[in-house]
Amino acid sequence: MRRLLVLGGGTAGTMIVNKLRRRLPASEWEITVVDRDDDHRYQPGYLFLPFGTYSPDQVVRKRHAFIPDGVELVFGEIDRVDADSASVHLEDGRTLPYDYLVIATGTTPRPDQTPGMLGEQWRRSVFDFYSFEGASALAAALPAFDHGRLVVHITEMPIKCPVAPLEFAFLADSWLRDRGIRDRVELVYVTPLSGAFTQPIASQHLGDMLEERKILVESDFMVERVDNERKALVSYDEREVPFDLLVTIPLNMGADFVARSGLGDELNYVPVDKHTLQSTAHANVFAVGDASDIPASKAGSVAHFSVEIFVDNFLELIDGKPMTGAFDGHANCFVESGDGKGLLIDFNYDTQPLTGRYPLPVVGPMGLLKETRANHLGKLAFRWIYWNVLLPGRPLPLPALMSMAGKVVPADDAGGPRSAPPEEE
Amino acid sequence: MPVTTIDNRQVHVNEEGFLTDPAEWDEAMGKALASQIGIDLGDEHWKAIRFLREDFAARGETPTLRRVTVAGGIPTKQLFQLFPQKPAKKMAYVAGLPKPHGCV
């Protein structure tokens, strides 16, 4: 009997066990998945909790309901992986041996990593919405906010769903206008990046959208601490951004057991080959979803597309064949822009988000990098798809690798080299 | 790839002016690149630049600011003093390496 052990029953882990249980004979393969609790949360839904668009019961289901028959679901806290003896130790003393290990324990907001973030203002005027508890606390506090400075803040990249803070700013703007108090609120977007987003064309579009909405941008801001007394963010280069209400995205880090096991980088992400997701240190270890260090967005769509490649590769590997699939970093994200509209971006390691139509040229029906009602409806419809199609590992008629069909490629402006870029951006 | 002349030498750069071939870099080049962005390199600067070069050689990618702090042992605060405003980018530029990947 061979053993596949999956750590984490979230988006990536659940899809993997569903797909592989169908492909691996039960007489030859034992599949086990470990998680700490029985609540599977639809994390994209957190964005909508503060504005009352979703209620808490719409974003939580029982984890075991998505784990197929023939897969053992073990509840427990992971102490460490012992890669040399190919076993995982749980905190309660149990040991789980494996032939192949998949680390799919994701990434977690860590407000404890920034001095002052968990101070006396935490969940009074300082909130996060990347946790269920944070989004729920913000939902309770937001109705009382009717004037002052609302600051949306990213601590450090990478974060999961890198567009979510922008979406929050757009939705907050829309929400304040609906309540007729937008003119009493100063909306500020504070980012460690040099612009609204990481990739040039999308950054330009999204930056214009911030400007149209009169959302001020404070860029290149690396927070050193939160000053609770003065209610201000303070950067390493001693700039201050005061707030009345701070909505922050804390530092995101991989699981602590990854560090304890000596398998992580400085943010506890597992170094892997970016095309196969195989650990660079151990050939029988993979990291899938947000837990790896691949230079792609930490997003459910990346987990989804990379699982498709991983599953086929894994079947080749256990057959003693070379892995032929190569993940391209494909990500695909709906971006809520407020007023019942949204954008869609589709990109990979090599191609930045472009304008155009998706998934089909001309007819779409989705517009890329363009605010449309269809994109907003697509985002809302996705919750149903997530629970009913994606997690159970049913096929979704979208290609795993990115396609250029429908995308508008900008003419290469062959500008000459610039000599002093870091000052100019 | 465009070619430009820095320190009386021809080097390959990308559209933002970052060197595209780490092998075209040496410490004299680093000094010239630093002066392009108004930085006069002292010992503390060199400690950071040398860490970037070594880490890139070992891992194949430019270290992030956090990695320079955690693995290179130079406090973030100091990096902001040495390379004001955009330390991650400026260090990579001076070290003749690509911009760090941290931001996707």
TrEMBL record, chain A:
Signal peptide: none annotated. GO terms for molecular function: oxidoreductase activity. Residues 3-121 form the FAD/NAD(P)-binding domain. InterPro entries: FAD/NAD-bd_sf (IPR036188), FAD/NAD-binding_dom (IPR023753), SQRD (IPR052541). Pfam families: Pyr_redox_2. It comes from the Bacteria. PANTHER family: FAD-DEPENDENT PYRIDINE NUCLEOTIDE-DISULPHIDE OXIDOREDUCTASE, PTHR43755. This is Oxidoreductase. It comes from Knoellia aerolata DSM 18566. The lineage of its organism: Bacteria, Bacillati, Actinomycetota, Actinomycetes, Micrococcales.
TrEMBL record, chain B:
GO terms for molecular function: sulfur carrier activity. SUPFAM superfamilies: DsrC, the gamma subunit of dissimilatory sulfite reductase. Keywords: Cytoplasm. The keyword Membrane does not apply. Pfam families: DsrC (PF04358). Coiled coil: none annotated. InterPro entries: DsrC-like_C, DsrC-like_dom_sf, DsrC-like_N, DsrC/TusE. Its main location: cytoplasm. It is found in: Cytoplasm. GO terms for biological process: tRNA wobble position uridine thiolation. The active site is at C103. One of its GO terms (cellular component) is cytoplasm. Belongs to the DsrC/TusE family. This is TusE/DsrC/DsvC family sulfur relay protein. The lineage of its organism: Bacteria, Bacillati, Actinomycetota, Actinomycetes, Micrococcales.
